[in-house]
Amino acid sequence: MKKFSFLVLSFFLPVVVRAQGAWNSGLDDATDASGLPNAPIHLIIVTFMEWLLSVFSFIAIIGFAISGVWYLTSAGDEGRIDTAKRAMIYSIIGVLVGLLGLVILTAVDTFFTGGNRF
Q1: In sequence order, what are the beta bridge partners of 31?
Q2: What are the C-alpha distances in Å from 35 to residues 18, 25, 50, 75?
Q3: Closest CA to 117 of 45, 66, 38
Q4: Residue 93's domain spans which residues?
């Protein structure tokens, strides 16, 4: 049960952090009486993709930390060392894909809006 609650918390942590931060994506004041966003579609898509990339990157970083703990606690067992190294490589690839996704998303948004959002 603890694993399930940790998994649910890890999915919603970026949302909570982003809600508390100073990131203003333009969707805060852009709602009508129905509660639906009244912003341009590209801004809604970019905001959703940024949230999705933050969840993906968070999971990749957690995977990197777990693989580091596996490596440290392997106690010389070659099978566990190989598993930890493979998990670390996959986590690094996950972080790089997340960062590359953010770069591509920012470049496409800048191309279509004709300016810099930040």
Answers
A1: 37
A2: 19, 16, 21, 55
A3: 45
A4: 44-113
Residue 16 lies in a domain: no
CA angle (18, 15, 97) in 5-degree steps: 90
Kindly state whether residue 27 falls inside one of the protein's structural domains. Answer: no
Spatial distance between the Cα atoms of 84 and 17, rounded to a whole number of angstroms? 29
Whether residue 49 is contained in a domain is answered as yes
Is residue 91 exposed (0-12), middle (13-18) or buried (19+ Cβ within 10 Å)? Answer: buried
> Considering its fold, how many domains does the chain have in total?
1
Structural domain includes residue 97:
yes
* Tens digit of each residue's pLDDT (9 = 90 or more) over 64-112: 899 999 999 998 899 999 999 999 999 888 888 888 888 887 888 788 7
77 burial (CB, 10 Å; 0-12 / 13-18 / 19+) is exposed
